[in-house]
Specification:
It is a single chain. The chain is α/β, with parallel strands linked by helices. It has a single domain, classed as Peroxisomal Thiolase, Chain A, domain 1, CATH 3.40.47.10. It has 13 helices and 14 strands. Helix 3 packs parallel to helix 6, helix 7 packs across helix 13 and helix 10 crosses helix 11. The longest helix has 16 residues.
């Protein structure tokens, strides 16, 4: 059974945007939402900037008990879920709960709350032996990332398949792929799918500092993330969430739903090479792209736009650029490529879903979001990275890719959902 999968609802909580509409306005304008970290005192860290969400859980309608029970990553996911359901005009009371599920991607789960609670239990790091009597009752939820998926499922009353995908920085793509597969094979009719991460805690920032993966360009945060630019020197850490309503095509059509895009295909590969390193040749990502195009029944020449991983590191830019050239051939040199991480940073397991939302909105709007801060394109790369300003285009086939620590390489093909063939 190969049923079609439609995106009918989008919810986003991202830096510089309180909802999907504000998010799209930000990235289509080429405006960067990077600033000095305010969630904790960042002095002493190598990288002191981030993509922070202007997120107020009280204003979002969370009770005091929910705020204490749920890590910030879960709050972001539930807030985005509520928006996606409203956007899809989906009445959950009319949907079979056993045919409804949730698939959530997260790289680091409840790290912010774990960091906070460890600080309490260790008395600010002064005690090696932790006294469990000081632990709050919800500590276990913070320790188990699947609690995020459970919170989303409870929010919508989903009693079908529920899962948490944690494959690092590709989790936001693979959670959507997993949800799409469940619909495609007939295991579900409606899925809430997406990713959420809130990694802006001292322990996480220190971890990326230690491997020098993040940029030390602290004096001018708005220009710090520079994918494909000759002067790039590391990515900008961020937080956020995007949730999508995925529906079986006929299910969506029967209720008159607006269809942003169709998920045509996906592919996943691993390089089995290095925990953080990448081969420059990009063979594994190219294989994932080829698998996604094959499933979507699209030729390389049909790709109208590539939404890149574009993390703003030299090894990633070279890796995926070579992957595009391998998988798309000469067409790669005619295909627009851009990275929205230049504007909102890298929110780990959430970013893939946020970028899928951007792809769906780009298809609907006929507009390619730009790569901000791209003033000096790296001459070793040589593709069209849509610098600085958005570009109008008729987008019928869009390729989204992602790359993650551990060697994970993911690709997804979205197509314009205007055919019942």
């Amino acid at each position: 059974m190969n049923r079609r999968v439609a995106i009918t609802g989008i919810g986003v909580r991202a830096p510089g945007g309180g909802n999907a509409k504000e998010f799209w306005e930000l990235i289509s304008s080429g405006t960067a939402a990077i600033r000095t970290i305010s969630l904790f005192a960042p002095s002493g860290f190598r990288s002191r900037i981030a993509g922070e969400c202007d997120f107020d859980p009280v204003a979002e309608g969370f009770s005091a008990q929910e705020i204490r029970r749920m890590d910030r990553s879960a709050q972001l996911a539930v807030a985005a879920t509520r928006e996606a359901i409203t956007d899809a005009n989906l009445d959950m009371d009319t949907i079979d709960p056993h045919r409804t599920g949730a698939s959530i991607g997260s790289a680091i789960g409840g790290t912010m709350s774990l960091d906070r609670e460890y600080n309490v239990l260790s008395d600010g790091g002064r005690k090696w032996l932790l006294d469990h009597e000081y632990a709050m009752p919800h500590l276990f939820k913070y320790l188990v990332p699947t609690s995020i998926a459970a919170d989303v499922a409870w929010q919508v009353g989903a009693e079908g398949p529920v899962a948490l995908v944690s494959t690092g920085c590709t989790a936001g793509i693979e959670s959507v792929s997993h949800a799409a597969q469940l619909i495609r094979e007939g295991s579900a009719d409606v899925m809430l799918a997406g990713g959420s991460d809130a990694p802006l805690s001292p322990v996480c920032v220190a971890s990326f500092d230690a491997i020098r993966a993040t940029t030390p360009r602290n004096d001018d945060p708005a220009t710090a993330s520079r994918p494909f630019d000759r002067t790039r020197n590391g990515f900008v850490l961020a937080e956020g969430s995007a949730m999508l309503v995925l529906e079986e095509w006929n299910h969506a059509r029967a209720r008159g739903a607006r269809i942003y895009a169709e998920i045509g295909g996906w592919g996943v590969r691993s390089n089995a090479f290095h925990m953080t390193g990448l081969r420059s040749e990009g063979t594994e990502m190219a294989a994932a792209i080829e698998a996604a195009l094959h499933m979507a029944e699209r030729a390389p020449e049909e790709v109208d736009y590539v939404n890149a991983h574009g993390s703003s590191t030299q090894q990633n830019d070279r890796h995926e650029t070579d992957a595009f050239k391998r998988s798309l051939g000469d067409h790669a040199f005619r295909t627009p490529v851009s990275s929205i991480k230049s504007m909102i940073g890298h929110s780990l397991g959430a970013i893939g879903s946020i970028e899928i939302a951007a792809c769906a909105l780009a298809i609907e709007s006929g507009l390619i979001p730009p790569t901000a801060n791209l003033h000096e394109p790296d001459p070793e790369l040589g593709l069209d990275y849509v610098p600085l300003e958005a570009r109008a285009a008729d987008l019928r086939t869009v390729l989204k890719v992602g790359s993650g620590f551990g060697g994970f390489q993911s690709a997804m093909v979205l197509t314009k959902g205007d055919s019942d063939e």
